[in-house]
Amino acid sequence: MSERLIVADAVVTDVGSIGNAILISDGKVVAIGDRDEFARKVDHEYPGGFITPGFRDAHIHAIPYAALLSGCSLKNATSLHDLIERLKSYAASISGSRAIVASRMDDEGLAEQRLPTRFDLDRVSSNLPVVVYRYCGHIAVANTVALERSGIDTSTADPEGGSLDRDADGVPNGILRETAAGLLGSALSRGGTMDRSTFIDGMTRLAGLGITSIGAMIGYGEQPHEQLDAESQLLHDCADDLPLRIGALSITNSPQTLASSQQVIDAAPGTRLRWLGVKRFADGSLGGHTAAMCEPFDDRNTIGTMRLSEADVEVSRASLALGGMVAIHAIGDRAISAVLDTFDRLIADGADPADLRMEHVSIASPELLDRFGETGILAVVQPAFLASESEWLPKRLGSERLVWAYPFRSMMDRGITVAGSSDSIVEPPHPLWGMQAAMDRYGIAPHEHVGGIGALSMFTSHAARALREPTPLAPGSPADLAVIDANPCTATSAEVGGATVLDTYVDGKVVDVDRSLPTWTD
């Protein structure tokens, strides 16, 4: 039996300070208390440090995150000219025959205040496919080559749950919304995902942020079945070397493909990879005007895109039958209502509400929250959205609906489990930044702020429930913990966001992290 005693200024959980020392044996928590209660030597002491449960990110796109660390992010582009120059520079750095793909484009930050079109991207390359994704992930823009190779032209119909923007003559202008982005499969086929070392490196950098468990969304993108197969296999192949725990949620509307993904993941060696369930979409994004709203956006005459269908109900039932969870993306109030209807059907069929997750829950009226609280389902939210949306969200929603935005306090007051996450690569995966956003609110519906303990619970105990994990730091649970240089119970929001992670432990062992490596790029 291998024991170690770790001491800091305090051990802090979502009930406050519970001591200053934690005894670990064979990778599990034995006891927590004051150091004087333990009749043994201290193995590691952190003066000025605070031990917390390991942080959980309940909703993250882990493979795109690992790819972004060496890929092309356009979030900070200031104009279309700047965006095009960044793409040209990136194109020069990669193989000359590869599609040029970039992410995190933010039209709100461009001087022109619009999305690029095919003609803008034709300036990057006239003989290679060029595709950029809005940072929400729900809108793609393709150049002429990418459209032609994908067979997209005037005769192409809008797919269910998506649309192509067109000029006055009906010709696609390269902007593809929601499921329409899937039409680009043949242009972007790259023969699989990434190598093991790149993925393990990305997961190690996440662990350096104090993250010990993630809910990884896998299979999102073009050629969805092939992508899910490839990403399921990648996780399987990396399972023995994972520095943190991964619960995988498979993005598919096919029960057969879902079962295949589950079999590959559950056959993986070790204990750090588990199949968690299925992920589906009810709508799109606020930034892209594709969130499904009951009333039109204030700045555009559209109520967004409803993507939920009977196929989602069928694959949800399949996931539950396989022993998995169901996670459905819902941002707008119309989408939230529709997902509640779907979950009511599943619960009536015998589903455990604790196996049902609603992702985002961004714009919810008090009446919707009352319904939500009565069901017993889980909410998986992204506080960091508040920081990036604070400049433009008021014009999307108007003053009346803005007070419903990201209602964390109201959800907690109704007893709803509110799990924190980043939705990276949409937002940076730093959990301390997410906690800061939940506390600060950046001027958006400030009455919905939570305190430090509430923010900590979002990224620890509540997220653990959304990942089907035991109560963090409870006796007998895995010794997964973070050590930071601020006390989240008493620190200000800025102090929490600016805190440093001193060490991360998984199964009672420190994760070896090169802290000189970047964990984010814009």
Fold blueprint:
Blueprint (H helix, E strand, L loop, with lengths): L2 E11 L2 E2 L3 E5 L2 E6 L10 E10 L1 E6 L1 H7 L11 H14 L6 E6 L12 H5 L7 E5 L4 E4 L1 H6 L12 E5 L5 E7 L6 H4 L7 H12 L3 E8 L5 H15 L6 E7 L3 H12 L6 E9 L28 H12 L3 E6 L2 H16 L7 E5 L5 H10 L2 E4 L2 H6 L3 H10 L5 H6 L3 E4 L10 H10 L11 H7 L2 H6 L14 E4 L8 H5 L3 E6 L2 E2 L12
Parallel strand pairs: 1-5, 6-12, 7-8, 12-13, 13-14, 14-15, 15-16, 16-17, 17-18
Antiparallel strand pairs: 1-2, 1-3, 3-4, 5-19, 8-9, 9-11, 10-11, 19-20, 20-21
Helix pairs in contact: 1-6, 7-8, 10-11, 15-16
Q: Ranges with pLDDT <50 over ≥5 residues? A: none
How many runs of DSSP E, i.e. beta strands?
21
Category by helix and strand content? alpha/beta
What is the CATH C level class of one domain, in words?
A: Alpha Beta
Helix coverage percent: 25-40%
**N→C terminal distance:** 46 Å
Number of helices: 18
Provide mean pLDDT, rounded.
95
Task: Give the overall shape, derived from the CA principal axes.
Answer: globular
CATH topology of one domain: Diaminopimelate Epimerase, Chain A, domain 1
Account of the protein in words:
It is a single chain. 31% of the residues lie in helices and 23% in strands. By secondary structure, it is α/β, with parallel strands linked by helices. Among the domains are: 90 residues, Urease, subunit C, domain 1; 117 residues, Roll (Diaminopimelate Epimerase, Chain A, domain 1), CATH 3.10.310.70. Strands 1, 2, 3, 4, 5, 19, 20 and 21 form an eight-stranded mixed beta sheet that branches. Strand 10 and strand 11 form a beta hairpin. Helix 1 crosses helix 6 and helix 10 runs parallel beside helix 11.
